[in-house]
Design a protein that fits this description.
Blueprint (H helix, E strand, L loop, with lengths): L3 H12 L5 E6 L2 E6 L10 H6 L3 E6 L19 E4 L4 E4 L15 E2 L4 E7 L2 E6 L4 E6 L6 E2 L4 E7 L1
Antiparallel strand pairs: 1-2, 2-3, 4-11, 5-7, 5-10, 6-9, 7-8, 9-11
């Protein structure tokens, strides 16, 4: 069976190539990666930014979709910063640099709290609210989904 890192590498390979589809089966584990826009096809550059390869994993009838641990409930006392896109979560600008923020740090709306890597592009994620970081909900290097909670902030 493939690890999640190996699956991510397959997705990156397919994304950067003219390969249309990769299909992997081992026992009842199936991974299909389909390139929605192989480099050989011409398209509008604006459309190309929005298209990404898709991956499907199946094991019999078992659902392999990652389920977030007890999703935090947003209350009037907290604000949840959510992932604006699918990508790899990075808590610092590079492995040798300190994290953008830590629990207890004061943040402003424009404060960069992390970056997400998607298709070899790094995108800053901002706090969206003035306040204090109360919880970091994901680990450095995790693959996050669109709308997945990343941080909780106590608004100032």
């Amino acid at each position: 069976m493939l690890s999640s890192k190996e699956i991510i590498e397959i997705i990156k390979y397919v994304d950067g190539s003219t390969v249309d589809e990769v299909h992997y089966e081992h026992d009842s584990f199936v991974v299909k990666v389909k390139n929605q826009n192989p480099e050989g096809e011409k398209s509008d550059p604006q459309e190309a930014k929005a298209q990404v390869p898709t991956a499907v994993a199946e094991r019999g009838q078992e659902d392999l979709t990652p389920t977030p641990e007890a999703e935090p409930q947003e209350t009037p006392e907290t604000h949840t910063v959510k992932a604006p896109m699918v990508g790899m979560f990075y808590s610092s600008p590079s492995p040798d640099d300190p994290a953008f923020i830590e629990v207890g740090d004061a943040v402003k709306e424009e404060t960069v709290v992390c970056c997400l890597e998607a298709m070899k592009m790094f995108n800053d994620v901002h706090a969206d609210v003035n306040g204090e970081i109360t919880e970091i909900l994901v680990e450095n290097g995790d693959l996050v989904e669109f709308g997945q909670p990343l941080f909780t902030v106590k608004p100032a």
